[in-house]
Write a structure and sequence with these properties.
Layout lengths: L18 H32 L2 H28 L2 H24 L4 H22 L9 H33 L3 H18 L21 H7 L2 H17 L5 H8 L3 H23 L8 H21 L3 H29 L5 H30 L1 H22 L1 H4 L21
Length: 426
């Protein structure tokens, strides 16, 4: 039988029946809820105070800087220490950053203070990414990973839907960002408490003495896996050009006239689409050609982005954003599962850190790019041009890495150094 996201030997609910998967999903869902509230609140507060698209673009830039500085140490920490403990530290740090933003809102601190705290937010996210994303792969078999990723993505997207909408409601009801920031901090503390109930798995065993070269082992691994490199480059540049989330405060306020509550729903629409798609993915058979699916979905993401940029109707805009989430979720599950099945556990932290840099780089720098082009050419031209750019990226990746299109079923692949399935492109 063909391969897919739920193999014949594994029913669609197998992963979520495991207690530690449920605990992790609930805890991370609370953290994502808080993170989404934080994100929508920062965007609303800065645009409300500055009315400047550049202010929105700078959010991504300030969060990106610590990611670039901490990517190698964070990945190495995830491979040297119990990943649960590293994740607890990072989310406690993110909670403290949210409390700092709450104080800055309450005392009407200068905008510069908000940007300084965004650096702390970026640092916490950079430390969290390689540890959080590699906890579950330590505990599951290769056959279970795709199903678990689909369920974890479902909880992630459910929180991503609720977070922006809840953030908008809190801001609208209170008239300020203070209580929204407090809610964001509480979500991080809940995740820390849930992580505390999971076992602290020891780091993978290693041979020989540690060396400085170990910091760069993730780069060597990615160079040895061009298909994985192609997949993350596809996502990086597609989101870099096609991301419209950073400009949603402008569309909500000046184009769609939807207010803070409407902004919350606009932020939630992609997550609603992603949630629906994640639930569907738990029931679908494995794709015979996941690389081909990846190329098609990124093209669909670009098309939906263009539709949003051209829309002046709130409902049409919500539909277009919904489909950006649908297409993006397919990309996320394929790319994450590809990383997990190809990477040996001893390298997962360092590879995940680099993967996060690619994704964080595209999201955060894409936010800066969107803010900059919106300031120069207007928000509509920025979003539509970005969607067209996503189409160009698909064509370039398909031409430069034809092996991606020929990639076989994900569950048949094996970590580098082990026997690899015949379906693995050579």
């Amino acid at each position: 039988m063909s391969a897919g996201l739920a193999s014949p030997a594994l029913d669609a609910f197998a992963a979520i029946r495991l207690p530690f998967v449920r605990t992790f999903a609930l805890g991370r869902g609370a953290a994502v809820l808080g993170r989404q509230i934080l994100s929508v609140t920062i965007g609303w507060q800065l645009y409300e105070r500055t009315h400047d698209p550049w202010a929105l673009g700078l959010i991504g830039l300030f969060e990106l800087l610590p990611v670039l500085l901490l990517m190698l140490p964070a990945g190495n920490a995830a491979d040297r220490f119990p990943r649960r403990n590293v994740a607890m530290f990072s989310h406690a740090l993110l909670a403290l950053a949210a409390l700092g933003l709450m104080a800055a809102s309450y005392y009407r601190a200068k905008v510069e203070v908000i940007y300084a705290l965004l650096i702390l937010v970026g640092a916490a996210r950079a430390i969290a990414a390689p540890s959080v994303s590699t906890i579950i792969p330590q505990l599951l078999s290769t056959e279970q990973l795709a199903n678990a990723n689909a369920w974890l993505a479902s909880s992630y997207q459910l929180a991503s839907i609720s977070g922006p909408a809840l953030g908008g409601v809190i801001i609208g009801a209170s008239g300020s960002a203070t209580w929204a920031y407090l809610s964001a901090a509480l979500g991080q503390f809940v995740f820390v408490a849930m992580l505390l109930t999971l076992p602290a798995q020891p780091p993978p065993p290693r041979a020989g003495q540690r060396s400085a070269q170990e910091l760069f082992a993730g780069f060597a691994f990615i160079r040895a896996n061009p298909v994985f490199l192609a997949a993350i480059l596809l996502d990086l540049f597609a989101v870099l050009f096609g991301g419209a989330v950073a400009l949603l405060p402008i569309f909500a306020k000046d184009i769609l006239h939807a207010g803070p509550v409407g902004l919350g729903w606009l932020r939630a629409a992609p997550s609603l689409g992603a949630l629906l798609m994640a639930l569907i993915l738990t029931r679908l058979p494995h794709w015979q050609r996941p690389g081909r699916v990846l190329l098609i979905t990124v093209a669909g993401y670009g098309l939906a982005t263009i539709g949003f940029g051209l829309s002046h109707n709130l409902w049409l805009s919500l539909v277009c954003l919904f489909f950006t989430g649908v297409f993006d979720e397919i990309s996320v599950v394929i790319r994450l599962t590809l990383e997990q099945v190809l990477t040996p556990d001893a390298l997962r932290g360092r590879v995940s850190a680099l993967h996060y840099v690619f994704i964080g780089f595209s999201n955060e720098l894409g936010g800066f790019e969107s803010g900059a082009t919106a300031a120069l050419f207007g928000p509509i031209a920025s979003v539509v041009g970005g969607g067209i750019g996503a189409f160009v990226v698909v064509g370039v990746v398909a031409l430069c890495w034809p092996a991606l299109e020929r990639l076989g079923p994900l569950h048949t692949l094996a970590p580098l150094g082990k026997e690899v399935s015949d379906t693995m492109p050579q």
